[in-house]
Design goal:
Blueprint: E1 2-6, E2 11-14, E3 20-26, E4 29-32, E5 40-49, H1 68-73, H2 97-103, E6 108-114, E7 118-124, H3 130-134, E8 139-146, H4 149-159, H5 169-174, H6 183-192, H7 196-199, E9 208-210, E10 223-224, E11 232-241, E12 244-247, E13 251-254, E14 261-266
């Protein structure tokens, strides 16, 4: 079978068995990617990249799919996307206040996730558990629930003195995760690091969320492949974790990194 279109971040949902189900939309075709694991696939990059915001052709993709202009002006690419503490929407300052009302001035969670090593992060309430799945987390737990992105960012910034805020992608795709994490103890230690003002936002949800991924075999020495350098990528799909396709010969392809790339997928 064949599908053609612009790559976008894979959709995900978590089944009752906690296994992640991935779907990739290419043009008018939605593909259940789990069904392709252990099967051969071929990805052909046409050489054309469309901005995920304005749709125009761009010679280079910035910030996971934007043309240069949209990276500078689009609310989806505002600085607080990567650095929540810098959000100023609560002060009435944003590239687009309607967007900020829907995305920044909404309840946010500060969390810990185990995706290779334990990291701290921030996400909107509506993005749980999608955010954790996108990071390839095997487990996660909430710490705080805040009324907006800025406050969540300040809590995250405070905890960054003790926890990383980055996903170690190699450990994640190799499945080198600490399976002995005592979430109850770690959550209490993390909350104990917060100021009294921050503790006002302590989440009452202390559930440990767990996930498993459709993977037949994990790479032993993962090497990223890029459609910019290798316009035709083919081989057996051995699994999917985070937004990475795990291919044979230790190759991994970051789908989100290639957002907007026009491809043909044979499967």
């Amino acid at each position: 079978m064949q599908a053609e279109g612009n790559l976008l971040k894979m959709k995900s949902e978590v089944g009752d068995d906690r296994k992640v189900i991935y779907r990739l939309l290419l043009g008018m075709t939605e593909i259940n990617m789990n069904e392709l694991v252990e099967r051969p696939i071929r990805i052909l990059f046409s050489g054309t990249i469309h901005c995920v915001c304005c749709g125009r052709v761009t010679r280079k993709s910035f910030a996971q799919g934007f043309c240069f202009n949209c990276m500078q002006t689009a609310p989806e690419a505002e600085e607080c996307v990567l650095r929540p503490a810098l959000c100023k929407a609560h002060l009435g300052v944003a590239r687009d206040m309607d967007y900020a009302l829907a995305h920044c001035l909404k309840p946010h969670f500060v969390y810990l996730a185990n995706s290779g090593e334990v990291k701290v992060g921030v996400t909107r309430q509506s993005q749980i558990p999608t955010r954790w799945v996108d990071q390839g987390a095997s487990s996660a737990i909430k710490l705080c629930e805040t009324p907006n992105r800025h406050i969540a960012g300040l809590v995250e910034q405070h905890l960054c003195r003790h926890f990383s805020d980055k996903t170690v992608w190699k450990k994640m795709v190799m499945n080198h995760v600490n399976k002995e994490v005592d979430w109850t103890d770690l959550r209490q230690k993390a909350l104990g690091l917060l100021t009294p003002g921050m503790l006002r936002f302590k989440s009452t949800d202390d559930q440990v969320y767990t996930f498993s991924y459709p993977v037949y075999a994990f790479p032993e020495n993962p090497q990223t492949v890029s459609l910019d350098k290798v316009p035709v990528i083919e081989g057996h799909l051995l699994g999917i974790k985070g937004q990475y396709l795990l291919l044979d010969e230790n190759r991994v392809l970051n789908i989100r990194r290639h957002s907007g790339y026009q491809i043909i997928l044979d499967y």
